[in-house]
Amino acid sequence: MTPGMPIAKTSGTTTPWQVMLTVLFTAIVAMLLTGHNLNRIVPYAEWAMALGPGSGDTAREVLFRYAALPRIAMALLCGAGLALSGTIFQQTLRNPLAEATTLGVSAGAQTGLLVALLWAPGLLAYGQAIPALLGGTLATIAVFAIARGLSAAPLTLIMAGLIVNLTLATLCAVFVLFYPEQAEDLSQWQTGRLEQNGWAQVGSLAPWLLAAFAAAFLLFRSLALLDIGDDRGRALGLNLSLVRPAALLVSIALAGSIVASAGIIGFVGLCVPAAARLLGARRLIDRMIWTPLLGATLLWLTDQLVQVIDTGGQFPTGIFTALLGAPVLLLLLPRLRPAGPPVRATPTHRRRLPAPRFWLLAALACLVLLVMVSLGLGRDDGGWFWAGIADADLVQRWRIPRVVAALSAGILLGLAGTFMQKMTGNPMASPEVLGVSSGAMLGAILMVSLVGSVTAASLILAGTLGATASFLLILLLGWRSGFSPERMILGGVALGTIASAIAGLMIARGGPERGLLLTWMSGSTYRVTMADAQTAAVIAAGSVAIAPFFARWLEILPLGEHHARALGIRVGLARCAIIALSAVMTASATLIVGPSSFIGLLAPHMVRMIGFQRPVAQLLGAALAGGLIMVAADWAGRMLLFPWQIPAGLLATLVGAPCFLVLIRWNR
Amino acid sequence: MWHAPPLNLTRRQLLLGAAAALTTPIPAAAATLGKAAAGGIVAIDWAAAETLLALGICPIGIADLGGFLRSFPGTLSACSIADLGSTWEPNLELIDRMGPALIYISPWNALAQAAVEDIAPVRISPIYAGKGRPLETARSFAEQIHSDFPQASDPGALAALENRHDRLRGVCAETREQPVLIVNLHGSGRFANVYGGSSMAGNVLEHIGMQNAWTERTNGFGFARIGIERLVEIKAASIVVIDQGEQTARALRILDASAIWKAVPVVRSGKTHLSPPLSIFGGLATAVNFAEWLVGALGRDG
Fold this sequence. Notes:
The complex is a heterodimer. By secondary structure, chain A is mainly α. Chain A has helices spanning 7-10, 17-41, 47-51, 59-93, 105-119, 121-124, 129-146, 154-178, 183-186, 200-218, 220-225, 230-235, 240-262, 268-278, 284-309, 317-332, 356-376, 392-424, 436-451, 456-480, 485-509, 512-522, 530-546, 551-556, 561-566, 571-593, 599-610, 615-639, 648-667, and strands at residues 377-380, 383-386. Chain A has two domains: 7-335, ABC transporter involved in vitamin B12 uptake, BtuC (Orthogonal Bundle), CATH 1.10.3470.10; 401-667, Orthogonal Bundle (ABC transporter involved in vitamin B12 uptake, BtuC). In chain A, strands 1-2 form a two-stranded antiparallel ribbon. By secondary structure, chain B is α/β, with parallel strands linked by helices. Chain B is built from 13 helices and ten strands. Chain B is globular and about 60 Å long.
């Protein structure tokens, strides 16, 4: 059941008994656990005294009043806030997957807080909510700009959110690495922790929650009208251009202030509204009342459970919700049918280049020139210089592997992106949505946390194993649904969210593992050896050679499953082959430039907008464009802050994303 | 070109090195250095850099030089040192151009080890490699450096440092204000890192004969991240707050208004001590300075 369903079908239910009973049951269990936990601080018999007016003298009474009780209040506030924020997001965007973490709001808030801490620490003295709100808003704007407007189809928006999330995670990793002496403070928002030392946090969060509830109920009539569709809503006097931004701002403010006071608590905003819907809260009024209540009691229960299990108090509650929520999300997947009409792959514009062959050759010439510059032109203490004969050895050892690796990764991601976009018929599909990069990341994390110290070779092995495992999982998931693109993308998003939550735990815990993980996540060509570069080059060359054989499938699949069958295509087989090839290409690229890469999205788009429409031309064009961008980013990353280096993947994203947006505007 | 037996340079490496010395131009940074013999040491690891400087040896380059000088405010020296880029991705081409004879890396640089070994022999700075005895390791590491570079290092420096170290052994055993809890406050005022027995700070406590109040689980560096409210229950007679500059100042400002902080028994009895600014990941010099300050601050209580 989705918020996009017409009212007529959902108004059958009257009182949502199931959800009421669940809330009650959760609250009772939470209360029992709370009693158990509080009893350890102050025995039952003395509670009345501890709460009384004259108390607060003994240390235990202080703990009771100023740590245990505000922690419960904080759990209730955060749970209710996240659930309400998720409900409003989902209603406003008519998207069952929209919430603070999937839309990049939480990551944006976190980035805003890191930026404030590093460059304007004075700002934090006025309250942490402001930088969090700014960051969250900017991230949301970026997601919508990438997904082109508020009415984007649900999956498109989620994919844009995934890309923004990955980029911000990389950016935060680089902040922590660039300022190692402030690493402790920088990682405090990485995972959600509810420990309190007084009522101050509760006091500053409660007004936000109250204001958000008030605003949500003021907007209630307009939000309810969204159920009947934009056109009919407009006919009834709904001002969409006002209601949507206002409602979004309310949800962003809620999520942002929660990140500022407790850190990122994943999955609550996604799972609780879904659970409430499944438990019978279907009408908007029911969802707006019962979802926050369910969120509050569930987070309260979870937080008390954490305290029972981990009496040492070292395990963040946010990780626990993610670990609990991830399987729930996977279970919910089959029930979550995204609303909205399918998106056509090819926009209406008919620009087509007259002579693609000429332009491809021109791009190839540019690439050769760029490769020569990036190999030859360098910097040292004195300034810029061209490498001479004497430098041949240095160039061969330090520049060639990186340039070759960047080139290969760019080509691979360009090809994989084109494959994914053509196959899913969705212009926002990028190789990351396969979940292969997340699988590689999980493999690497597992390796680092089990072994402690690792070598480059063992990390690549672990990454490959993780990527293979996630690829098999995706194939299994796809097999049952005939490789339906939607199911694949949802699985990829779920995997990505789990991976980033676990990575967050590792980063927040500190210890030797943090540096290892962060360097790998930052995604540069730094550690590439000549052997790695050669392997990548061989895979890239092989992929370029194979790709044209997929041309017919790629031409026909975007027309839709029905047409494809009519034209004699075995759709399942075609999709399976395309996914397999894309997964191999993405995995090899990920192992070189890390899990964040905008290139797989950007390169295919660029060449299509320039006018390469036919599959073969677009494939070759995207490969060339991906190579050009990555080589340029790698070179610029080595030169800009010399002797410091900016990871190529990050630089490509930071420069590529605005270019992408300009390109979209220019193309309209 | 410097070379010494303990490094086990093979003949092939020496020949390659000589060939490289002939073909590559002499780097400007190395040429300006007086002591050509020790001129070729590069420190990507900060604890190694501190130890080198403490022994009077000038490294030609240190990774993240700005961050190093901020974290080790006492180590300013007359050496001319080049910045090598970040500690996690030092600029390998630049290092190669400098033609170092030896490179110190951190255990967490292990991913780049193979590449760095292409430039020059590599030593992994052992202090925080997870053996759990940072102070002992820091001492033997300093001795190792001294014996690797007998001419380059200041002859009295190591002996003086070790003397100070040895004189501190067990001097606080009789002090009444035990056990001691060593904390590093997070800027938010809600969390703190507490240092267990396998951390450098914990080792220092043990060395001067004091008990550590934190005996629970820690991470690979020997510390645990806990909520401030847990300080209330920890049985400690005094708390040492490690000064991390602005972050610590911010935390203390927030905590001054916190009921929990005021309820911590040690805070109530005024037995909290703010250390001088010092790095968490320092070498022998940092450890000895910290130990001497601890004896001065806590010994007086007894």
